[in-house]
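User: New here, any thoughts?
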Amino acid sequence: MRVALVVPHWGKDYIRARDTRGIAGCWPTPGLQYVAAMLRDAGHSIVFLEGYFYSNEEMVDRVVESGADAAGVYVISILWDNAKPFLEQLKSRKPDIFTFAGGHGATGMPVRLLTESPHLDACTVGEGEYTSVELISALERGLPLSGVDGLVFRDGDGSIVTNRPRAMIEDLDALPFPAVEFSEMERYFPSFEQVSRLPVMQMLASRGCTGGCLYCYKMYGHRIRLRNPVLVVDEIESYIRRFGTREIKFWDEHFTYSHDHAAAICDEIIRRRLRISWWCSCRGDAVDPRILRKMSDAGCWCINFGVESGVQKNLDTLLKHEKLERIEHAVRMAHAVGIKTHTTYIFGIPGETYQEGLRTIEFAKKLNSFTVEFFPITPFPGTPLQKGVEKGLFGTMSDKLGDQGMLLERPCFVPFTMTAEEIMKLRRLSYVRYFLRPSFLFYRFTNIMSPFQLRAIYHGARSLLQMAGEQLGSEWKRLTARRSA
């Protein structure tokens, strides 16, 4: 069969859709590339379309012209409002095409998606590789869809049927490498703040996370499954040969969960003498000097630590099960072996106050990471936070899925202890106070690793000036209102 795999258009109001070479950048969708590889190996023809580069109308034209028999659409919450018109336009042009959705959004709310769009025929829930292959095979052979585990679909009478859940993929090594050849890889331009050298590719060395954070949806489960380190490095080497790749970004949720596994990957990179830089994410309580030195020797240049808050009470609310002292120690250890850090923080945690948000900014400055990001917290579908909000706990949120992006205008969730204006003020202040420190500016300018990062400084300066202007405007309005009162 001919299968189109589509990422809906990101929308004119979403920052990443306006400029793929801006500071936010854009990445291909690894889950969809894995599905493409599985369908390719099963003998199906693939069309891969990316909403960063095309409008919904252009992608509908291409799907129709390709003669596709089925179309799989990648859905996360912020893309659903753009996926719906794509599905409607596609069905109006090609009524007999079978449409299905996958991804975190389809996994977290399949019934809602099928209810809201009569043009969607099914959702794959969880890891989609085997489910998608079995779905397309059933369609091709005229078999009932009730036999496909991990599928929620619309029956002939219009009722929504939920099949048995699909078990997690135990043997990740049985999966083919992602089918990057179907993506227009040369058009993706990743984030300046998380990449030092181009070309760059993304990878997974494991799936799953043992954590139970309040804000996180575990599509890959709470148990970590590891790939064979030799196959991981085989994939790295294939990207070096095919694309001249100079850097790898690992998307693993918990890269150093197993020190033996992480060390084996490092040893294999070193044994093959691969000249590759890479970036990964770790928990603060899952690193020590030994593994950090090994990672540095193998080319790791930066680690992302999800700090989230500089107030222990708020970390406990998030169910992080980490101590601020341990996180700080981990960052210091990484810096000591020459690995830079990228730390992330969130504002609007249930129970958090504005003053506590200011303490988080000060903690971020104390850690002094090479790059940082500050976000308003988002109760994504299926997360414990979202379920608590629905029960009237924690605070209030918008019921529009499209509001769940990291937009600058207004947070989609506001706890009872803060206002939306305070959250956005904290976000502006955080970037201005962090990046405009003379000592930090000196640090960044003396640690430029490639011409690529000169663009990071340029775009970052533009964003900072905009935020500083917004903050000054906000303060001026506040003072004017006080005088008039």
